[in-house]
Specification:
By secondary structure, the chain is mainly α. About 60% of the residues lie in helices and about 0% in strands. It has 21 helices and five strands. The protein has a two-stranded antiparallel sheet with strand order 1-2. A two-stranded antiparallel ribbon has the order 3-5. Helix 4 runs antiparallel to helix 16. It is globular.
């Protein structure tokens, strides 16, 4: 097993950031002193999400406490009720505990009680350690726990990422893991955040952080197929402009929509994928790799993650489709995008009203895409790739025989 960082993937990220602090993420800037309710310093955009009345919030907390105390019963007999409550939004005071139950981190912690301590005390692969240290200051630098380079936030982030690189040495460290780990640390201690990261990487997004990124490329094809069903007009426009999913969805998914990469990084990673597979997967580069944790307003990120950790990766597909349908809903917008450049710029600058939690969740629930559609498209894309691989193998065998004959 290789025990190294994902160099080929991470170079596409790191070579364009030049070690500088990312000044803005999720509409926040660290130039102002005020701290908002999420811990971000200097909010640049107004919070358009409506705060729940205290009475409703307390009522929901009591329901969630009852559910957490009887978790196995609810998950086996009353899962639809769990899903319904996740879609309404988990009460902030119970979000950390609920996420751990939803993703299975609680199971990991109960069954591997000393594993994190063991990994935390190990030295780690030098190359992974070096790559992780380079990325620490880039993760939500405007959040109060990550502002200071010598603070506990960056220290705990290093511990989590190093521990995961040892836990799964085949994958090692991939830069897109960092914003997910950082987002988890905003809600819970290091050990709990580590096991949530393990669950997300191993169960929710398996293969997303492996060298070659084949899993994310398959999901890019699936997204494009689902978009064709959900909005044939937008699908045709993107296909005509050769704007394929990888250039926008990769960071959306791999970072769970929590952060936004510099545009030069998005293009660099898109070129890496083009070279590796001969195709461009345009817009998904920014969405899927970070599971939208780098893209949406923070209140929306939390609502998306509430659903994502309950229902799985299908939520990310739905968020991506809703965003695309909203952005290109008007014929005028399509007319104003005569080339790949304008189309990608439109995707990069999504109007704020389309990213607000109430609007986005409402549109996700309305979307006419179900699990059967996703499974059918998944099977179709897997079969398509299998056929391509078989054809390539046959061609290689033919070429090999020709060389021997000559």
């Amino acid at each position: 097993m290789a025990s190294s960082s994902n160099v080929s993937v991470d170079e596409s990220f790191a070579n364009t950031t030049n070690g500088s602090i990312v000044p803005e993420q999720n509409g926040y800037d660290n130039s102002e002193g005020a701290v908002d309710r999420f811990g971000f310093i200097g909010s640049k955009t107004p919070n358009l999400s409506s705060a729940l009345p205290v009475e409703i919030l307390r009522h929901r907390e009591l329901k969630w406490l009852e559910m957490l105390e009887n978790w196995d019963l609810f998950m086996t007999k009353k899962y639809k009720k769990v899903r319904e409550r996740c879609r309404k939004g988990i009460p902030p005071a119970l979000r950390a505990r609920s996420w751990q139950y939803l993703c299975g981190a609680k199971f990991y912690m109960d069954n591997y009680r000393h594993k994190f301590t063991e990994l935390d005390g190990a030295a780690g692969d030098p190359r992974c350690v070096d790559d992780i240290k380079k990325d620490l200051h880039r993760q939500f630098p405007s959040h109060e726990i990550f502002v200071h380079s010598q603070g506990h936030g960056q220290a705990d982030l290093f511990r989590i990422l190093k521990a995961y690189s040892l836990f799964n040495p085949t994958v090692g460290y991939c830069q897109a893991q960092a914003p997910i780990a950082a987002a988890l640390l905003m809600h819970m201690p290091a050990e709990q955040a580590f096991w949530c990261l393990v669950a997300i990487c191993e169960k929710y997004l398996p293969g997303y952080y492996s060298p070659g990124l084949e899993a994310i490329q398959v999901d890019g094809d699936i997204l494009f197929g689902l978009l064709k069903k959900a909005s044939p007009t937008i699908y045709k426009h993107l296909k005509k402009q050769r704007v394929e999913p990888i250039l926008y969805m990769t960071e959306w998914f791999m970072c769970a929509f929590s952060r936004t990469l510099p545009w030069s990084t998005v293009l660099s990673l898109g070129m890496f994928l083009r070279k590796s597979k001969g195709r461009t997967y345009s817009y998904m580069t920014e969405w899927f790799m970070c599971a939208f944790s780098r893209t949406l307003p923070w209140s929306t990120v939390l609502r998306v993650w509430d659903m994502f950790l309950c229902e799985g990766v299908k939520v990310l597909f739905k968020v991506a489709i809703v965003i695309l349908k909203s952005v290109f809903a008007k014929t005028e917008t399509l007319k104003n995008c005569p080339s790949m450049y304008e189309t990608l710029e439109t995707i990069r600058h999504i109007p704020e009203e389309y990213l607000q939690e109430d609007y986005l969740v409402q549109q996700i629930l309305k979307l006419n895409i179900n699990e059967h559609d996703m499974e059918k498209e998944h099977q179709r894309q897997v079969a398509k790739r299998r056929t391509i691989r078989e054809q390539q193998t046959m061609q290689e065998q033919v070429n090999g025989k020709s060389k021997k004959t000559n």
